[in-house]
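Z., the sequence and structure:
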Amino acid sequence: MRRRILRSRRTGYVVLNTIDAGFSSPSLIPYFDANPAFTLMYERQVTPRDATRIYAVNLDALDRQPVPARVTRSAFEGLLSRLRGDAVALQSALDRLNPAGAVLSPE
């Protein structure tokens, strides 16, 4: 979510549906859960892949703490392969993308 958009619209809540047409995804859940600007207010899980979550947004907390990017193992291995196994180059690229770094996330 872009902070500017959330602020300009004075967003109070974000609704995440894990099976919508392409925007939401279960892979976004760790970001919202780890970011202090979002507080989980409601969750309904129908199946392991079908869930709805509602987060309250604290606009003042959006810039307070950087959150590491979560990278799946398959994405990590794919990028590492493209870089011909150069783990240092991969770590450097991930660090440039996100100053808070990156962590491996379950698939």
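The radius of gyration is 16 Å. The chain has four helices and five strands.

Let me know what you think.
H.
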